[in-house]
Amino acid sequence: MRGLMMDRPLLIQSLIRYAARYHAETELVSRTTEGPLHRYTYADAEPRAKQLAKALMRLGVGFGDRVATIAWNNHRHFEAYYAISGMGAVCHTINPRLFADQLAYIVNHGEDKVLLLDLTFVPLAEKMTASWPAVRHYVVMTDRSHMPATSLPNVLCYEDIVAGEIAELEWPEFDENTAAALCYTSGTTGNPKGALYSHRSTVLHSLALCASNNVGIAMQDVLCPIVPMFHVNAWGVPYAAAMAGAKLVFPGPRLDGASLHELFDREGVTCALGVPTVWLGLLQHLEATGKRIDSVKRVTCGGSAVPISMIRTFAERYGVTLIHGWGMTEMSPVGSLSRRQAPPRGRDHERRAAGARTLGHRCLLPGRSGQPSCARLRWLVSHRRRGDDRCRWLHADRRPQQGRDQIRRRVDQLDRPRKRGDGPSRCRRGGGNRPAASKMGRAAFARRRGQARLRACCGRGHRLSRGQGCEMAAAR
User: Fold this and answer.
1) Which of 13, 50, 217, 381 gives a 20 to 30 Å CA spacing to 76?
2) Residue 344's pLDDT band (boundaries 50, 70, 90)?
């Protein structure tokens, strides 16, 4: 039996349509490649995306065809994101920092029909033209007054082809599993491999970014995606911002500390996303000039491990929360995010000092009468996949998941050799034969022969059943 709720496909064009209708006056600010700032709203952006879509149709782009982009983070690239995918074609973003042979392979393997490029990358395209025989048209993303003299074949001006169309276009509806975007990753053996995103996966990824335990994008935010739009879709921010109706500030090609600080201060940026090298440059500029970034509340950092000193500097000196992210091109690309959590309760001073995270759960211990009674037990757990050790509260009867947090086994408090007749349900102190005291002891972690081991002292004993986690049993 199927439900009777509304069934609509999850399509990328619905995001810009929603933003233009319900957040019409929210601004999109862009530092253009030509230099000055460009400012308009979601209500202005959607008609231009429709005009670009019609222009691409006139150039022979059809459903499922690939259209490549090599451009900085700016308003024209934003329009291309929605125009290409919204018409049913595939937006193929290309990283210009790759080697020439990789660029040749990527464009030819993707069979791109049209290539949209920023002014900065015209010389690169001129060198690669002979290696890209499938590209029929080159569209330089600028206006007529800044159009360069170039040797590119079939070259067109972006503003000219957009101005030549009218915005009377109804976004088509199709299967939500239709391909929407294509990104190639060079982090592999052999030639780069393409990750083909669908409309459905992109919309769900945007929804996840807006969650409070994630980046937490909301309509009150002023977002600055510094991670390039030519690399894994700027971590999905152009889509998530439209979903939330948040203001977007595009930094363009100027990513130095001084330029970013000026943009943050002028536009009141509250959330920015970038790699550690970008934040290092910004922090160096702030330290050298004594300036601050008071509007910024949080930054998301990924691409490589973030130094702990950077996290502390943002938090202690500028009051900014740093969200550490990890992902892959194949994951759209955000995989997981780490947020700073509130300190745990209880006698966990050593674990708090070590930065371990504790989670509280209740477990049942057998009382003197044989009836279960509520208690709390600290376990130290090794995360086998990441290889780190974390202190957590766990359900005593929780079934461990393969490859996740697991309790390997319980050992005696003083780690004495086991004697004959000592069963797993016996918990003794330092070589004595009397049961341990009823008061729960501290959990400590030890490693023996490369395996995680658990030390726990509890009055009634514990037995760990294989495949069933920690099972509580009364001492004999």
Assistant:
1) 217
2) low
In angstroms, the CA 162 to CA 143 distance is 10
pLDDT digits (tens, 9 = 90+) for 225-235: 999 999 999 99
Q: How confident is the model at residue 389 (pLDDT cuts 50, 70, 90)?
A: very low
Cα–Cα dist 189/184, whole Å: 13
- 3-class state of residue 266 by DSSP: helix
Which amino acid, residue 262? E
Going along the chain from its start, the domains and CATH numbers come out as 13-338 (3.40.50.12780), 349-472 (no CATH)
CA distance 300 to 307: 13
Q: Are strands 469-472 and 462-465 parallel, antiparallel or unpaired?
A: antiparallel
Residue (of 181, 238, 246, 183) closest to 206 by Cα position: 238
Q: Please name the residues in contact with 312: beta carbons below 8 A apart, sequence gap of 6 or more.
A: none
Q: What single-letter DSSP state applies at residue 236?
A: G
More confident residue, 436 or 150: 150
With 80 as the cut, is the pLDDT of residue 409 above it? no
Cβ–Cβ < 8 Å for 233, 239 = yes
Q: List pLDDT tens digits, range 155-202.
A: 999 999 999 999 999 999 999 999 999 999 887 788 999 999 999 999
Output the pTM of the full model: 0.74
Which amino acid does the sequence have at 374? C
Section 66-76 average pLDDT: 98
User: What is the distance of C-alpha 425 from the center of its chain?
Assistant: 45
Q: How far is the CA of 113 from the CAs of 13, 60, 142, in angstroms?
A: 21, 8, 20
3-state secondary structure 66-134: EEEEECCCCHHHHHHHHHHHHCCCEEEECCCCCCHHHHHHHHHHHCEEEEEECHHHHHHHHHHHHHCCC
- Residue 155 to residue 181: CA distance in whole angstroms: 23
Q: Is 325 exposed, middle or buried (0-12, 13-18, 19+ CB in 10 A)?
A: buried
Distance CA 383, CA 26 (A): 44
Per DSSP, the three-state class of 416 is coil
Examine the pLDDT at 356 and tell me if it is beyond 60: no
DSSP H/E element including 51: helix 42-58
With residue 405 as reference, give the H or E element that holds it: strand 405-406
Q: How far is CA 60 from CA 56, 57, 89, in A?
A: 7, 5, 11
